[in-house]
Amino acid sequence: MAAKSGALRMIEPAINLDQLIHERVRLGIVSALAATKTLTFGELKEILELTDGNLSIHARKLEDAGYVSCRKYFEGRRPQTAYELSPAGRKAFEKYVNHMEALIQAMKPKGK
Description:
This protein has about 110 residues and is α+β, with helices and mostly antiparallel strands. The protein has a single domain (about 15-105), classed as Winged helix-like DNA-binding domain superfamily/Winged helix DNA-binding domain (Arc Repressor Mutant, subunit A, Orthogonal Bundle). Helices cover about 60% and strands about 15% of the residues. It has six helices and three strands. It has helices at about 5-15, 20, 25-35, 40-50, 50-65, 85-105; strands at about 40, 70-75, 80-85. β2 (about 70-75) and β3 (about 80-85) form a beta hairpin. α1 packs antiparallel against α6 (about 85-105) and α3 (about 25-35) packs across α5 (about 50-65). The chain is elongated, with a radius of gyration of 18 Å.
């Protein structure tokens, strides 16, 4: 088999990006959860400046994929929702970051 061309090696990391995480809002959710153990719905909404509906839709997609776990509870009489990055989500995020780093490195001009 022939060696891969330089151009193909450069775009390979981009092709392998996890498209579920790559979407802007979901990347924000996963990034925020990677930086801390747990965030409530309200905290994520404030940090990412999202509407309730927008956050709900994207958090549900991450939950359905097994990347985020959701816990519902009451604080006094107020219902709360807390999110946490699952082990699968952490692994997917680390893989995503590694792919992005590889893409950035491939795009940097080589020293002479």
